[in-house]
Amino acid sequence: MTHILVTTDGSELGHLALPHARALADALHAQLTVLSVVPDDTMLVGEFAYIPPVSGPDEVARVQATEADLAERLPGAAVRAELARGRHTTRVILDVAAELTPDLIVMGTHGRSGLGRALLGSVAEGVAHHAPAPVLLVREGQPVTAWAAPGALGVPAGLPSGPVA
Q1: Which end of the chain is more exposed for a tag (fewer CB within 10 A), N or C?
Q2: Residue 10: pLDDT above 80?
Q3: What is the DSSP letter of 1?
Q4: pLDDT of 121
Q5: Neighbours of 50 (CB within 10 A)
Q6: Rounded to an integer, what distance in angstroms lies between the CA atom of residue 87 and that of residue 136?
Q7: CATH number where 46 lies
Q8: Can you tell me the distance from the alpha carbon of 78 to that of 157, in angstroms, rounded to the nearest whole number?
Q9: Inside any domain, residue 65
């Protein structure tokens, strides 16, 4: 495993997955990419729609602010920040994952069920069902496991790190 993608929407729940992804990346010496998804600022006025550009000074400032926040939250980690915009968060995450081809996607989840999930949907569920890579969902209150211990990932430390036949 060489690349881990962790998603966030900037909320505290969105940041839940960061320490878990960081622990895995450290243990596996994997690249860590943090994807921040921001809502599309499409404005509808009558028959017209205005869609602001995806790139520009504001977007660069957002990425820089995200990188600064990550440096505080994950001191000492080499983290790459990505920013994507879209109306459908699930689709945006799936598109970015298809482009970046991570070995693992890590996400925080509300853990809603029943009517809450039916009304609001579940980004995590949508990504988990359609992702091009395995997905690790982190619920609130889950402690960060000591991933770094030899054999802690359920694989004896001496096995090669390639695909399992």
Answers
A1: C
A2: no
A3: -
A4: 54
A5: 9
A6: 23
A7: 3.40.50.620
A8: 24
A9: yes
* 109-118 long-range Cβ contacts below 8 angstroms, 24+ apart: 109/137, 109/138, 109/139, 110/13, 110/140, 111/139, 111/140
Q: Which tokens hold the place of 68? A: 């600064």
Q: Total structural domains in the chain?
A: 1
Q: Does 32 have pLDDT greater than 60? A: yes
Residue 147, domain member (yes or no): no
C-alpha–C-alpha distance, residues 105 and 137, integer Å? 8
| Residue 93 in this model has a pLDDT that exceeds 90 | yes
Within a domain: residue 154? no
Report CA-CA distances (Å) from 38 to 42, 52, 113, 143: 12, 13, 24, 27
- In this prediction the pTM is 0.72
Sign of the four-CA dihedral 24, 153, 107, 142: negative
